[in-house]
Amino acid sequence: MTGVKDAPKMVSLFSGCGGLDMGFKTAGYEIIWANDFDRDAQAVYRMNLGEIDGRDIMTVEENEIPDCDILTAGFPCQPFSNAGSRKGVHDSRGMLYKECLRIIAKKKPKVIVFENVKGLLSTKYIDGRNLVDVIIEDLADMEDIGYNVVHELINASDYGVPQNRQRVLFVGIRKDLNKEFIFPEKQDKSRLALGNILDIPADVPNQVDWPLSPQAMEMINYIPEGGSWKDVPYEHLAPRFRKIRDNMKKYHSPNFYRRFSRSEICGTMTASAQPENCGIIHPTENRRFTIREVARIQTFPDEFVFIDDNIKNITAMYKVIGNAVPVKMANVIAQAIMRQAFEGEQKQ
Ligand SMILES: C[S@@+](CC[C@H](N)C(=O)[O-])C[C@H]1O[C@@H](n2cnc3c(N)ncnc32)[C@H](O)[C@@H]1O
């Protein structure tokens, strides 16, 4: 990876297909090392951003990672996700953040960025403390250095992303720089409705969709634009949905098969891309969103490609896109960090 002179050097952990990295790159950072052990994510990353180390981060020695100015890590969200089993830090994957600490302690970057799901806010550490407090204290008290860490629950739609997607962001600035990060102002949402992004020229790549199951097709016939499974007559529901409809109170009235309208901001795109857990149905056509439509909802530029002749696994593309940090959100944060931690530093 070659870069611009004086661009802050970035090490990216848990890089996925590169949503966060794309946002930082376009804000002027030079990605000097990235890592992810998922082969589908690596393939997409290489097509768009460059080389990526494909090892399990737990097997990588700190001295194999170059020195950097900023370290980013969207450590896996599954253990913290409300949709998952909520094993939290008792699940070994929950400890992956300790891998970040191990590397930060050796590399001492000026800035660190962690991204995670909302569920992290209500996750307890093994000793009963809130995980958020543990992370902040671990980073604050790091030997020799230490970081001033702030965190915020943000909605991607506040930063120009046509999607309501809540994520927790931690930004830490090394204590010797005497700064505390201030999250950027929320932006106008008036251009974020689905109708603004679904008109895609035919020559834009990756306009393929993963066909819905026959059962799903039967149900979506009855769901109007802006509706959900609640619009499907009982006799047309798949058996497992009838069971839930029979006892909505017990199941807390879930809102499956949400079909967002063109005048609404879309819901969170998930890695599974299933109509049960995300609004993946096109507003006016009876089908799942295409790879490109989901990519647009996640604010990947149209030049960013996901699937080629070597990558035949279409479901894997929905997975890597759903896992990504929206590019635009990452870019807004990256620009704010540039102004506050790096450009400010040069002026002193
Ligand atoms: C939420 S995704 C990150 C998405 C990424 N930040 C983006 O914007 O596209 C988490 C990633 O961590 C990777 N991962 C999980 N455990 C890992 C490990 N032990 N070593 C390396 N990568 C790992 C997964 O393959 C997954 O791609």
Automatic annotation (TrEMBL):
Primary enzyme class: transferase
Active-site residues per Swiss-Prot or TrEMBL entry: 77
SUPFAM superfamilies: S-adenosyl-L-methionine-dependent methyltransferases
EC number: 2.1.1.37
Catalysed reaction, written as an equation: a 2'-deoxycytidine in DNA + S-adenosyl-L-methionine = a 5-methyl-2'-deoxycytidine in DNA + S-adenosyl-L-homocysteine + H(+)
GO biological process, one term: DNA restriction-modification system
Keywords: Methyltransferase, Restriction system, S-adenosyl-L-methionine, Transferase
GO MF, any single term: DNA (cytosine-5-)-methyltransferase activity
Alphabetical list of NCBIfam families matching this protein: dcm
Name by which UniProt lists this protein: Cytosine-specific methyltransferase
